[in-house]
Amino acid sequence: MSSFSAFKQAVKSAAEQFKSIPKTETIRIISHLDADGISAAAILIKAIQRSNRKYLVSIVHQLNKQIIDKLKQEDYKYYVFTDLGSGQLDSLKEMSDRQILVLDHHKPVDVEAGNIMHINPHIFGIDGSKDISGAGVVYFFSTALDEQNKDMSHIAIVGAIGDNQEDNGFSELTSEIVADAEKLDLINVNKGLKLFGIQTRPLHKALEYCTDPYIPDVSNSESGVIQFLNELKIPAREDKGFRKVIDLSQDEMQRLIAGIIMKRKNEENPEDVLGNIYTLPNERLGHSLRDAKEFSTLLNATGRLNRASLGISVCLGNEKAKSKANALSKEYKKEIVNAMNWFRDNADEESVVRGKNFVIINTGDNILPTMVGTLASIVSKGNKFNEGTFILSLGQLGDGYTKVSLRVVGDKKDYADLKSVVKSIAEGLQESEVGGHTYAAGAMIRTQDEEVFINKAKQVFESYLNSSALD
Ligand SMILES: [Mn+2]
Q: In this structure, which residues have their CB less than 5 angstroms from ion ligand 1?
C-alpha cells in the first residue's frame, strides 16, 4: 500500500471511531493558535455542527504541561487535538482515561501512542512540514466523516498557506484538496505576481514592502517605487484614491511583470516573482479574505491578538465576524509596527546581540509575546543580514515563562533543521518545551533561564560556522 493510501486508511478508521461517539457528548477541541491551527479547528467544528454534535474549543499557543494539567481537571470524555499534540503524547497519555484523538502534522516524538488515536502523516513517511498541514489532516478526517465537508476545502488551503507549504503549487496530498476546492468553485488558482496585499494594499505600498522576492531599487524604497511606476507609465492613483494591484488593467499588469523581471535581471531567478495566486471567488473584491495569503494573515492576526474565536467564525463564513476581523487586522499591523520599531530603536542596545552568524533579540516585556515569532520571521526576510544568519527572538509571557522563536535568513532548504537547533539549545533546561518545524521553531522556557539559554544559543550557532551545513 502506498504511504498516501495508508494515511487515508488510518484517517478513515479514526473517522469511524469518531462516528460511534454518542451525539449527546460534547467534543472537546484543542487547537493551535496560528492560521493553520485556527483553520483546522474551523474545519472540525463545521463537521461537528453538521453532524448535530456539541463542542467546546480552546486555542492555545503551545500545548504545555500547565494546559494539559488544566484539561485533566475537566470532565469531558472526548478530546480532539488539532495541529498539535504529536509532540506531547507522553503527557496526553496521563489523561487517556478519556478518548483522545490527535490530528497533527508536526514531527512526532518517538513515543508509543498507547490508546490515543494518533493520526500524523509522518507515521506514514509523509513529510508534514511540506506535504500536508494540520488543517489538511483535519480536512481528510472531516471528509471521511461526511463528503459534504468538502465545502471547507478552501479553508484547508488557507491553513496550508499559513504554514508556508505553498511553493509554486502544493505537494500531491494538498493538491487533492485544491482540486476539491476548484471543483466547488471555492478557490481559483492563477499564475500572477507574488505580491502581498493584492486585494487590499495600495499598489505602491505592495511594491515597496515586497522583499521576498527582492526587487532591486524598488523594495524598501518609496521614491524608487514612484520612479519605477512612472517609467512604466502606471499611475499609482486615480480619482478615487490609490490603486491596488487588482485595479490594474491586463496591459498594465504585463508591463509591471516585465518591469520587475528586468529589475531582477541580475538575481538568481528573475522570474521568481511569478507564482500561484489563490483567490476565493465568493469573497468580496478588495477584501483581504478574497486572497488566501491575506486570509491566512488575518487568521494569524486574530490568534495573536487573543481573538481566535473570531478567526474561526470567519472561516465558518460569518459575515459579522468578517467585518470585525478586518478592523482587527489594522490593530495587528500596529502591533507589528510596534515590534519592528522596538527592534530598530534597540538594535544597538544590549537587548540585541549580534554575532557572526546570529542575531539574538531579547524583547523582554516590550512587545506582545505572541509577536515574538512574527518579529523573527520579518527580520529574517529583510535584507539586513547575510544568508544563513540565525535570528533568535525572546519575549516574556508574564507568567514566569519566556517564548523563544528561531528563524534563519535565506533559502530555508539549505540550512539547519531549526527545531533540532532549538532542542540542543534548550537541552537540560527544566520545564522547557520545544515546538515547531524545520524552517520555523520555538520553545517555551522559564524566564529565569533566559541568560543560560542565550549563552548556550551563541555556542550552538557558532558551531555552525565551522560545520559543513553552510558549505
Ligand atoms: Mn500547522
A: 36, 83, 133-134, 163
The C-alpha atoms of residue 288 and residue 303 are separated, in whole angstroms, by: 16
How many angstroms separate the Cα of 153 from the Cα of each of 5, 174, 182, 236, 460? 19, 10, 9, 36, 41
If you measure from the C-alpha of residue 85 to the centroid of ligand 1, how many angstroms do you get, rounded to a whole number?
11
For the chain, what is the total number of helices (H) and then of strands (E)? 16, 15
pLDDT at 470 (0 to 100): 44
Q: Are the CB atoms for 364 and 372 separated by under 8 Å?
A: no
Ligand 1 centroid–CA 249 distance in Å is 37
| Span from the CA of 30 to the centroid of ligand 1 (angstroms) | 13
Give the number of other CB atoms < 10 A from CB of residue 217: 12
- pLDDT, residue 467, reads 63
Q: Where are the beta strands (DSSP E) in 10-98?
A: 26-32, 54-60, 78-82
* Cα 163 to ligand 1 centre (Å): 6
Q: What pLDDT sits at residue 229? A: 97
Contact 80, 44 (CB under 8 A): yes
Q: Check if the beta carbon of residue 71 is closer than 8 Å to that of residue 30.
A: yes
Burial state string for 303-327 with b = 16 or more CB within 10 A and e = fewer than 16: bbbebbbbbbbbbebeeebbeebbe
**Is 36 in contact with 311 (CB distance < 8 Å)?**
no
Q: In 61-199, at which residue ranges do the beta strands (DSSP E only) sit? A: 78-82, 99-103, 117-119, 188-193
Closest CA to 131 of 166, 79, 156: 166
What is the sign of the dihedral through the CA atoms of 435, 133, 127 and 121? positive
pTM value is 0.86
List of domains in the chain: 3-152 (3.90.1640.30), 191-337 (no CATH), 346-470 (3.10.310.40)
Other beta carbons within 10 Å of 241 = 8
**What letter does residue 61 receive in the DSSP assignment?**
S
39 CB burial (10 A radius; 0-12, 13-18, 19+) = buried
Residues of the chain with pLDDT under 50: 468-471
**CA–CA dist 135, 69 (Å, integer):** 25
Please give the grid coordinates belonging to residue 321.
465576524
Per-residue pLDDT of 456-465, as tens digits, reads: 999 999 998 8
pLDDT at residue number 1: 67
The number of C-alpha atoms within 13 Å of 47 and in the hemisphere containing its C-beta is 28
Query: From the CA of 105, how far away is ligand 1's center (Å)?
Result: 7
Q: Residue 184: its pLDDT value, please?
A: 98
